[in-house]
Specification:
The protein is an alpha+beta fold. The protein contains nine helices and eight strands. The radius of gyration is 19 Å and the shape is globular. The chain binds flavin mononucleotide. Flavin mononucleotide binds next to helix 2 and strand 7.
Length: 328
């Protein structure tokens, strides 16, 4: 049963909620979001931060929408964790295209807030990308099913391909890497977002990057060849990576946002099970390769992300801007 107690949102609580939202993954850690409270309707709005777009690698803003969807998922969890009922709307105002999502605090939920997603909220602070080699230990079948159900609950699809299909997906990703490295505009763009932690709270610090795969079969993103082999020698990665393909039935802006909600739901469930993750988005940035990522056996769908799952070192976290700075 839901009561209609009016939420009281002071500045500290608002910052706590937004801190949870900004812990979400974003392409190159651009953190392409702005938050605004509408006090009259108890709604937190999320807008695209247009000064943090990636015109060369993400010209349509698809990756930006995925990032914002992931932030909206965290915000929804944080609102529920505080004991309010979150009501998420995607693209709530057709007259304001930059307003990508909103989360309304619809009243107090008297029962324990975490009954829907036990201890998922805590994972927000523990999750980050691990670009390190994983062991060959398989991801348990029960968790794999749980991840697929979570993606489905957010309006997306998750497939866990076998060895042969994974090999095909990695070959397409390798092809994307080769293309990106010879594309000056894309190279310059990703290089700009590799930034020392001491300089800025945006972008990826060099210590969060991982080694190259010594066997050359797992095409981890190179981020423009910024890893001198003498500083970070190649290492063997798991020979049969556990990939997960996140897809949606359509490819509209709302689907990109839904893919972001699903991505974050999947990543937090994996984190709770002590399974690490990193993302392989390179092939999705080339329309022809993205099209080839589809497995026609799964029916018509649009691939939104490749996720690599496994057991291994935690890897270094990337910084975030303060919640206060992300608030209008
Ligand atoms: C749309 C999108 C695309 C991404 N693509 C890649 C990628 O190709 N390779 C990679 O290592 N990380 C990728 N990431 C992960 C981000 O680099 C990462 O989330 C960000 O740097 C913040 O770090 P964290 O995940 O450790 O919090 C992507 C994230 C998003 C949302």
């Amino acid at each position: 049963m839901t009561t209609t107690t009016t939420p009281t949102l002071d500045a500290a609580v608002l910052e706590e909620l937004v801190s949870a939202a900004v812990a979400a993954p974003s392409m190159h850690n651009t953190q392409p979001w702005r938050f605004r409270l509408q006090p009259r309707t108890h709604t937190i709005e999320i807008r695209a931060a247009l000064d943090r777009e990636l015109p060369a690698e993400d010209p349509e803003g698809r990756g930006l929408h995925v990032s914002v969807g992931a932030a909206a998922f965290n915000l929804r969890l944080a609102v529920a964790h505080r004991g309010w009922e979150p009501v998420v709307r995607l693209l709530p105002d057709p007259h304001e295209p930059q307003l990508l999502a909103s989360v309304r605090l619809a009243g107090r939920v008297p029962s324990a807030p975490d009954t829907v997603a036990p201890d998922l909220y805590e994972q927000i602070w523990r999750r980050h990308s691990s670009r390190q080699p994983f062991s060959g230990r398989p991801v348990p079948g029960a968790l794999r099913s749980e991840l697929c159900e979570a993606a489905h609950a957010e309006g997306a699809l998750l497939h866990l391909p076998g060895v042969d299909e994974s090999r095909r997906l990695m070959a397409l990703t390798r092809e994307a890497e080769v293309r990106t490295l010879t594309d000056q505009a894309r190279r310059d763009e990703s290089r700009r977002w590799i930034r020392a932690r001491a300089e800025t709270d945006f972008g990826i610090p060099p210590e969060a990057l991982g080694p190259h795969d010594a066997a050359g079969h797992l095409p981890m993103r190179d981020f423009s060849g910024l890893r001198p082999p003498t500083l970070l020698p190649s290492q063997p990665f798991e020979p049969h990576p556990q990939l997960a393909v996140l897809a949606t039935a359509h490819d509209r802006r709302a689907d990109w946002l839904r893919a972001g909600l699903a991505l974050q739901h999947v990543l937090l469930l994996a984190t709770r099970a002590k399974v690490r993750s990193s993302l392989l988005h390179q092939a999705i940035e080339w329309p022809d390769l993205r099209w080839m990522l589809r497995d026609p056996g799964n029916g018509p769908e649009h691939v939104q992300m490749l996720i690599r799952l496994g057991y291994g070192p935690e890897g270094a976290a990337s910084p975030r801007a303060n919640a206060a700075d992300a608030l209008d």
